[in-house]
């Protein structure tokens, strides 16, 4: 009997997704195995320096080395707080997708597996934040309200596209952070685990969207084309937290970080692969280019 996965995405994409599912089931990481014995002090870095929103600005140049590392600890906690917020949104979207499937559908298993992984990620991010000695940063009430709105009016394709865009934004930072020599060992292990599992999530989202997006009606396609860049922009905003600069007493820090040309260029670079993917499935036709440009995404 044809599964609903195969009905939804076609037999070829269904076969590729099934092989992703098989690979995912064979590889699980246990965040409880993380080693927290090295103190979370300011002898180490917590985020690859190039990914600090403030890097390269006069405000950053003025900070002595130890304060730069302290900033990286707070930025990492804020970034992980944003991660917890976004993973919560996406767990909801995945659970709602699973709600429509029967248990014998391979996609049902994959979605629950992804939910399981995101729950573990949020738990380990929370563990870092609780141990890091920083406030429990999270996106502002205004961004959280936007998240709730997306929850109510986002279509399934909008969600998968937003998940992909967000994972691309975070991927550059997590990948560089686990590879950087000076990163604290617990964070290094955490980021490595996250990078590996997220690559699987991104591979699935790409397969799914490649099969489903072109088959949407005109309205559904335009809804996503206009809506997704706005959701991704919300996430970009959530990656620069004014609270960090207030807590650390860096005057003008938020403004400098937000306007930092180096940060802006990096966002575009991180999103280049996502933009190219969107263009390849018809999600970013030339008419949408001004929107991407105005929002600083391309
Ligand atoms: Fe995650
Ligand atoms: Fe993910």
Could you describe the 3D structure shown?
It contains 13 helices and no strands. The protein is 71% helix and 0% strand. It is mainly α and 298 residues long. Bound molecules: fe (ii) ion (2 copies).
Jot down its keywords.
mainly alpha, 13 helices, 298 residues, Ribonucleotide Reductase, subunit A, single chain, binds fe (ii) ion
Strand-pairing-aware structural class: mainly alpha
**Total strand segments:** 0
Examine the secondary-structure arrangement and name the CATH architecture.
Orthogonal Bundle
Mean pLDDT: 93
What is the end-to-end distance? 44 Å
CATH superfamily: Ribonucleotide Reductase, subunit A
Q: Kindly give the count of domains.
A: 1
The radius of gyration over CA amounts to 19 Å
Cα shape:
globular
Helix content: over 70%
Low-confidence stretches: none
Q: What is the H/E string? A: HHHHHHHHHHHHH
* Unique bound compounds: fe (ii) ion
CATH class: Mainly Alpha
Helices and strands in order, then pairings?
Blueprint: H1 4-9, H2 11-26, H3 58-61, H4 65-99, H5 106-131, H6 141-153, H7 156-179, H8 185-212, H9 218-238, H10 242-248, H11 253-259, H12 261-280, H13 289-294
The structure holds fe (ii) ion (FE2) (2 copies).
One fe (ii) ion binds at residues 118, 167, 198, 201.
Brief summary of the model shown:
The protein is 71% helix and 0% strand. It is an all-alpha fold. The longest helix has 35 residues.
């Amino acid at each position: 009997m044809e599964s609903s996965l195969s009905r939804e995405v076609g037999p070829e994409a269904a076969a590729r997704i099934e092989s992703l599912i098989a690979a995912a089931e064979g590889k699980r990481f246990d965040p409880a195995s993380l080693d927290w014995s090295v103190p979370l002090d300011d002898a180490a870095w917590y985020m690859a320096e190039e990914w600090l929103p403030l890097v390269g600005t006069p405000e950053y140049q003025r900070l002595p080395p130890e304060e730069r590392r302290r900033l990286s600890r707070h930025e990492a906690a804020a970034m992980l707080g944003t991660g917890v917020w976004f993973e919560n949104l996406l767990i909801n979207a995945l659970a709602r997708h699973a709600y429509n499937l029967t248990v014998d559908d391979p996609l049902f298993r994959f979605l629950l597996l992804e939910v399981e992984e995101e729950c573990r990620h949020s738990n380990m991010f929370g563990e870092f934040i609780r141990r890091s000695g920083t406030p429990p940063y999270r996106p502002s009430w205004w961004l959280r309200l936007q998240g709730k709105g997306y929850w109510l009016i986002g279509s399934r394709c909008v969600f998968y596209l937003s998940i992909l865009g967000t994972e691309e934004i975070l991927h550059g930072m997590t990948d560089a952070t686990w590879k950087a020599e000076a990163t604290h060992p617990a964070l290094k292990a955490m980021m490595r685990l996250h990078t590996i599992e997220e690559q699987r999530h991104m591979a699935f989202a790409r397969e799914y969207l490649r099969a489903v997006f072109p088959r949407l009606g005109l309205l559904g396609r335009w809804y996503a084309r206009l809506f997704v860049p706005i959701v991704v922009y919300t996430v970009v905003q959530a990656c620069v937290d004014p609270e960090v600069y207030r807590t650390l007493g860096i005057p003008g820090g938020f403004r400098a970080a937000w306007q930092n040309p180096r940060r802006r260029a990096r966002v575009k670079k991180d999103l280049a692969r996502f933009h190219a993917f969107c263009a390849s499935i018809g999600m970013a036709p030339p008419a949408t280019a001004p929107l991407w440009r105005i929002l600083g995404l391309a």
